[in-house]
From TrEMBL:
Residues 327-389 form the Enoyl reductase FAD binding domain. It is an enzyme of class 1 (oxidoreductase). NCBIfam families: EnoyACPredFabV, PRK13656.1. Gene3D superfamilies: NAD(P)-binding Rossmann-like Domain. Belongs to the TER reductase family. Keywords: Fatty acid biosynthesis, Fatty acid metabolism, Lipid biosynthesis, Lipid metabolism, NAD, Oxidoreductase. This is Enoyl-[acyl-carrier-protein] reductase [NADH]. Signal peptide: none annotated. Monomer. It catalyses: a 2,3-saturated acyl-[ACP] + NAD(+) = a (2E)-enoyl-[ACP] + NADH + H(+); a 2,3-saturated acyl-CoA + NAD(+) = a (2E)-enoyl-CoA + NADH + H(+). NAD(+) binds at residues 48-53, 74-75, 111-112, 139-140, 244, 274-276. GO terms for molecular function: enoyl-[acyl-carrier-protein] reductase (NADH) activity; NAD binding; trans-2-enoyl-CoA reductase (NADH) activity. The record marks E75 as: Plays an important role in discriminating NADH against NADPH.
């Protein structure tokens, strides 16, 4: 089968296994080039480890810190006629390369919200690692099936209180359009918090504590985004922001609990905006990201997932001195500091008010955005021969 991208709105329904492996290899090469990360957790569980920030975390920890990692994700394997998801191929490639390098790397493909995946994970930790020193919570999902009732809850990406009108880019037509997004109902706000808030993170920590698989001093971190005035109406002040505030509240609860019981800690890490499957689904983010990437590239401070995450683990998470300077008043570790620099944001505002369909590619890195979006699914890479037929069931 010749695999081509099939883009439907903000998703690509096909993925290229070889391209995905190339992406993983590039992140590994970046990590190795930066050098060994000192004082890093050695046995780590990463939830949401097959793409975006979770994948980069796993790569930085394994190839930068020689950590043993267990990755949890929810991805579709291929069938005879349909490719697997990009995350499935990323995770397969990572386990293969890590194992070849002599690193412990195992994955569980299943619903992290379920009790059964929690049980399977605990069993695997007990059998293979004994305990873990860190849990990275990097899950991004539009739905959650509640373990107690089986009910499916859906999250929404909507403003709260009033209709939000803004410019956005139509990524199918490459045009600047007006976006009008109706405010969420109270039920939608509640549901989004149920899906993307801290409820499941807390369930994980409780289950792991009960099973005595968290080592003394174990850390847990969950990823968040805050953004700027441009994105606040749809993100921080919207339904997803409510969920992230609940995640912060959960962090403070877990921090108290873990510090009392095992001298451990829980923190929110605020990361920068990057191109992932999750962020491309958020209205206005593709346009904002195209603009802010150009500005950050101009100043030589551009970061994608692996660069932002490598900085987190190598400079901030374990070094006491710098940790305090990057912790804000809400006890959040800020890795969005470069994106939020005043000079960067001032330029973003100016461009935001002047951008049109005609000057879109000139004023922003929109072409690079499109290229990188395709890359998420293993397409558009010069290293891959896309004309070569692939037998999906022979991919190893
Ligand atoms: P992503 O879409 O690239 O990855 C999501 C991961 O979650 C995948 O591994 C997927 O398999 C996994 N997943 C989804 N549902 C699951 C389930 N039910 N069970 C198990 N695994 C499941 O997402 P991302 O953009 O890397 O986001 C990860 C975290 O980083 C989120 O908390 C997000 O808010 C945060 N973050 C993202 C950005 C950004 O710009 N993308 C910025 C800052 C913070």
């Amino acid at each position: 089968m010749i695999i081509k991208p099939k883009i439907r709105g903000f998703v690509c329904t096909t993925a290229h296994p070889i391209g995905c492996e190339v992406n993983v290899k590039k992140q590994i090469a970046y990590t190795k080039k930066q050098g060994i990360i000192q004082n890093i957790a050695k046995r780590v569980l990463i939830i949401g480890s097959s793409s975006g920030y979770g994948l980069s975390s796993r790569i930085a920890l394994a190839f930068g810190g020689n950590a043993s990692t267990i990755g949890i994700f929810f991805e579709k394997p291929e069938t005879e006629k349909k490719t697997g998801t990009a995350g499935f191929y990323n995770a397969m490639a990572l386990d293969k390369i890590a194992n070849q390098a002599g690193l412990y790397s195992k994955s569980l493909n299943g619903d992290a919200f379920s009790d059964s995946v929690k049980k399977k994970t605990i069993k695997l930790i007990k059998e293979d690692l004994g305990q873990i020193d860190m849990l990275v919570y990097s899950l991004a999902s539009p739905i959650r099936q509640l373990p107690e009732t089986g009910k499916i809850i859906r999250s929404v990406l909507k403003p709260i209180g009033k209709t939000y009108t803004s410019i956005a880019v139509d990524t199918n037509k490459d045009l600047i359009v007006k976006a009008n997004i109706q405010p969420a109902t109270q039920a939608e706000i509640k549901d989004t918090v149920t899906v993307m808030g801290g409820g499941d993170w807390e369930l994980w920590i409780n289950a792991l504590l009960d099973a005595n698989v968290l080592a003394k001093g174990c850390k847990t971190i969950a990823y968040s985004y805050i953004g700027t005035e441009i994105t606040w109406p749809i993100y921080w002040n919207g339904t997803i922001g409510k969920a992230k505030k609940h995640l912060e509240y959960t962090a403070s609860l877990l921090n108290k609990k873990l510090s009392t019981i095992i001298s451990g800690s829980a923190n929110i890490v605020v990361l920068k905006s990057v191109i992932t499957q999750a962020s491309s689904a958020i209205p206005i983010m593709p346009l904002y990201i195209s603009i802010v990437f150009k500005e950050m590239r101009k100043k030589g401070i551009h970061e994608g997932c692996i660069e932002n995450i490598y900085r987190l683990f190598s400079q901030h998470l374990h070094t006491k001195k710098t940790l305090s300077s990057n912790i804000d008043s809400e006890n959040r570790l800020r890795l969005d500091d470069w994106e939020l620099r005043e000079d960067i944001q001032q330029n973003c505002y100016k461009i935001w008010s002047n951008i049109t369909s005609e000057n879109l590619k000139e004023l922003s890195d929109y072409s690079e955005y499109k290229q990188e979006f395709l890359g998420l699914f293993g397409f558009g890479l010069k290293e891959v021969n896309y004309e070569k037929s692939i037998n999906l069931l022979e991919i190893k």
